[in-house]
Structures are given as C-alpha cells and as structure tokens.
Design a protein that fits this description.
This protein has 7 helices and 10 strands. By secondary structure, the protein is an alpha/beta fold. The chain folds into 2 domains: about 1-80 and about 155-225, Rossmann fold, CATH 3.40.50.300; about 90-155, no CATH class. β9 (about 205-210) and β10 form a beta hairpin. α5 runs parallel beside α6. It binds adenosine-5'-diphosphate (ADP).
Length: about 230
C-alpha cells in the first residue's frame, strides 16, 4: 500500500533527514516509527502525505508514484489519508460535532451526509455523548479524540499520527493508543511517529527505529528500547 524505494530526503541546507529508506507498509498494518528527535520521523510521514518530496528515490501510494503528482491530483491523494498532526488545532468556537462536520462541509458534502456521518464517527471515538461540547469543556484526551474523528471523516485508507499522545497524561495516552488500535482493527492502516515508549510497547505492533535518517531496526512485534 505504501512503499519507499531508495528514498533520500535532504532539506535546503543539505541536511540529510532521511537516508536511502526502503520500506513497505501493507494493508491492515499498524506501524510505530520511533527514534530520537531529529531522526526523521516527521519527514517520513510528510513524504507519505506528499507534503514534502524526496530528493532521491520514490514513494508509492497504492502503486502510484507520488513524485509526479500534480497539484490538481494532490487533494485526491490526501483524501485517502487522515492526519493527526501536532499543529492541527480544533476550532474553539465550534462544538465537537461542528468541528468534525466542518471537515465535511469544506469538501462540499450535503447536509444529510453530514447529519448521518458525524454522529457515527463520534461514536467510534467514544464521544457520542459529548457532541455538543466545546473544546474548552473537554479534556486533552477528548480533544484528541475529536482530532481523530476529523481525520476519519473521509473514511481514509491510512491514518498518519505525529506524536498523537505528545501532550497527554499517561492514562489518556493509553486511551488514545487503544482508540488507534481499534481504528486499525476496523481496517485502516495506522502509522504513528512517537517517543512514547509505554504505549508503543503495549501495542506490540511493528516498530521501525530511525536513527539519523536510517532505519536501524524494523521489527514485526517490536519493542522500543532506545532512549
Ligand atoms: P523527527 O520527527 O524525528 O524529530 P524530523 O523529520 O522532524 O525528525 O527532522 C529530521 C531532520 O530534518 C532534523 O534535523 C530537522 O532539523 C530537519 N528538518 C526537518 N524539517 C526541515 C525543514 N523544513 N527544513 C530544514 N530542515 C528540516
């Protein structure tokens, strides 16, 4: 489903963020990308989202090479991907329902579809009883559930999550991880970049360890052992 074929990414100043990455992620997988700050985790996710382009090599998504993707086709590619990035903020003056509905409205979905889909998705993330609450009335973990609901609204093939538990306490972090595992069980590929050793080890799923832009370990039921 996702394939990195000899992918190197250098940023402007010639810094090599990813160095000759070969990687395949199949349907149904749950993958944790771990490593120290600066190892290249976010860059790997951004290449899948086609937010950055490789300097060398090719990223394939569903057999399609992303390097030649036109501006016109980019939204169609991104429609396949739900993102839970750290800098994606909720709209403070909209309720949980409205925050999720907004993602459908901007893509021109009819009202009937919104009324049907939003409660379904909020139910999946466990917020069915808090649809009318505003972000400030919800805990950090609940707010992150709304972000995840928003990421799910187009029924993506893949969820990309960059430090999804970055700002959460240990209990909420576990709950968010359990939610991501549930979404994976429902058939969505999940790729997370994370430092959170406890949640990654609990998941007992594939772990890819990056160090200075290289994959130094790729283990099907991995543990995150590196500090
Ligand atoms: P991680 O997510 O593991 O912390 P990143 O992928 O964010 O790592 O960054 C890898 C390296 O690339 C870092 O050294 C970072 O400073 C550099 N880098 C990331 N984004 C940019 C950018 N837009 N321009 C220049 N350098 C960048």
């Amino acid at each position: 489903m996702i394939r990195f074929d000899s992918v190197t990414k250098k940023y402007k100043d010639d810094y090599t963020a990813l160095d000759n990455i070969n990687l395949e992620i199949k349907d149904g997988e749950f993958v944790s990308v771990v490593g120290q700050s600066g190892a290249g985790k976010s860059t790997l996710l951004k290449l899948i989202y086609a937010e950055e382009k490789p300097t060398e090599g090719t990223v394939f998504f569903a057999e399609t090479p992303l390097d030649g993707i036109s501006r016109r086709k980019l939204p169609f590619h991104r429609r396949n991907i739900g993102t839970v990035f750290q800098d994606f903020k909720l709209l403070p003056k909209k309720t949980a329902f409205e925050n999720v509905a907004y993602a459908l409205e901007v893509s021109g979905a009819p009202g009937g579809e919104i009324a049907e889909n939003v409660p379904q998705i909020l139910d999946i993330v466990g917020l069915a009883d808090k649809m009318e609450k505003y972000p400030r009335e919800l805990s950090g973990g609940e707010q992150q559930r709304i972000v995840i609901a928003r990421a799910l609204i187009h029924r993506p093939l893949v969820i990309l999550a960059d430090e999804p538990t970055g700002n959460l306490d240990p209990v909420s972090s576990m709950e968010i991880m359990d939610l991501l595992l549930k979404i994976n069980k429902l058939g969505t590929i999940v790729v997370i970049a994370s430092h959170d050793r406890e949640i990654i080890n609990k998941a007992s799923k594939r772990v890819i360890v990056l160090e200075k832009g290289k994959i130094i370990c790729d283990d099907a039921k991995g543990e995150y052992k590196i500090a």
